[in-house]
């Protein structure tokens, strides 16, 4: 039952299916490793820049936010890094400044939720 030709056909077919689904990368392992290392280096540089820009209290608050809402924390980090790169931040960001920044972002992105209740009239009710 362990026919080598049959096994080779199965392997090829499995690779084709994975390529169609986008699961299998056509890159070799060295390229994948290099990409992962580049991502890790970029994240390390990002964290280094944030540690230079934020005070320790502000970093702690941002870490707590990241536990609950990682996408929101990432957005705040992006805003802070862009402001620092454009020269708008000249001193370390304190916790109070971070809170005011968070409030500004919340006001800009707040969503108004409106609930309307529609009651169905019963067939047996006769209001006429």
TrEMBL record:
Kindly provide the name given to this protein in its UniProt entry. Answer: Programmed cell death protein 5
Q: List the GO terms this entry assigns under cellular component, sorted alphabetically.
A: cytosol; nucleus
Q: What is the lineage of its organism?
A: Eukaryota, Viridiplantae, Streptophyta, Embryophyta, Tracheophyta
Source organism: Protea cynaroides
Family statement:
Belongs to the PDCD5 family.
The superkingdom listed in its UniProt entry is Eukaryota
Q: Where is this region: Disordered?
A: 1-46
One GO molecular-function entry:
DNA binding
Q: Which residues cross the membrane?
A: none
Q: Which residues form a coiled coil?
A: none
């Amino acid at each position: 039952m362990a026919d080598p030709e049959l096994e080779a056909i199965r392997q090829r077919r499995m690779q084709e299916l994975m390529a169609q689904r986008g699961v299998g990368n056509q890159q070799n392992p060295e390229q994948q490793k290099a990409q992962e290392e580049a991502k890790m280096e970029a994240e390390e540089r990002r964290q280094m820049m944030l540690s230079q820009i934020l005070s320790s209290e502000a970093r702690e608050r941002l870490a707590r936010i990241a536990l609950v809402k990682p996408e929101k924390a990432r957005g705040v980090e992006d805003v802070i890094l862009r402001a620092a790169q454009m020269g708008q931040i000249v001193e370390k960001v304190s916790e109070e400044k971070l809170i005011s920044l968070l409030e500004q972002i919340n006001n800009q992105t707040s969503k108004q939720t409106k609930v309307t209740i529609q009651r169905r009239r019963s067939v047996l009710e006769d209001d006429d």
